[in-house]
Write a structure and sequence with these properties.
Helices cover 22% and strands 37% of the residues. The chain is of the alpha/beta class. The protein has a single domain, classed as Cytidine Deaminase, domain 2. The longest helix is centred in the middle third of the chain and has 13 residues. The radius of gyration is 14 Å and the shape is globular.
């Protein structure tokens, strides 16, 4: 399966958002081109089912994300979210609410620390997710 390419700062932004919202789930949009994610757009988790184990993106935020991507000459490629104190593996809820055209990175945040980031794509028949490898192009921190 083709890797999802994370541009500089994308992994850090997703992990930071997960740490900031812990112990609740975070969520956000992914902007890019093809399989390359170049920007994140943090969104509010508007679930009424309890943000510790669920996330929902407001319809207006979805439209705003599409407009931001278009204005930047990019596409809306998918959505990320966190799993507080749970593995970075899609839940049944994730399966029930996903769309086959998007990529879904999940960051596992344990005790406030981001411990894993994995990316998933829904099969066209909506039966399951397949893991997509992640290629991270972030530059390593330089020694000062």
């Amino acid at each position: 399966m083709t890797p999802v390419v994370l541009g500089p700062g994308v992994r850090a932004a997703i992990e930071q958002h997960g740490r900031e919202t812990y112990p609740h789930e975070c969520c956000g949009a992914l902007l890019g081109d093809g399989d390359r994610i170049v920007a994140t757009h943090p969104l509010s988790n508007v679930t009424t089912e309890g943000p510790r184990r669920r996330f929902r993106i407001d319809d207006k935020d979805y439209l705003t994300s599409e407009r931001q991507a278009s204005a930047a000459g990019l596409s809306l490629l998918g959505f990320y979210h966190s799993h507080p104190d749970h593995p970075a593996v899609p839940s049944q809820y994730d399966l029930d609410h996903a769309w086959p055209t998007f990529v879904y990175p999940i960051v596992s945040v344990t005790a406030g620390t981001a411990v894993a980031l994995r990316a998933w794509a829904l099969r066209a028949d909506r039966s399951a997710f397949d893991e997509r490898p992640i290629a991270d192009t972030s530059e390593p921190a330089s020694a000062s």
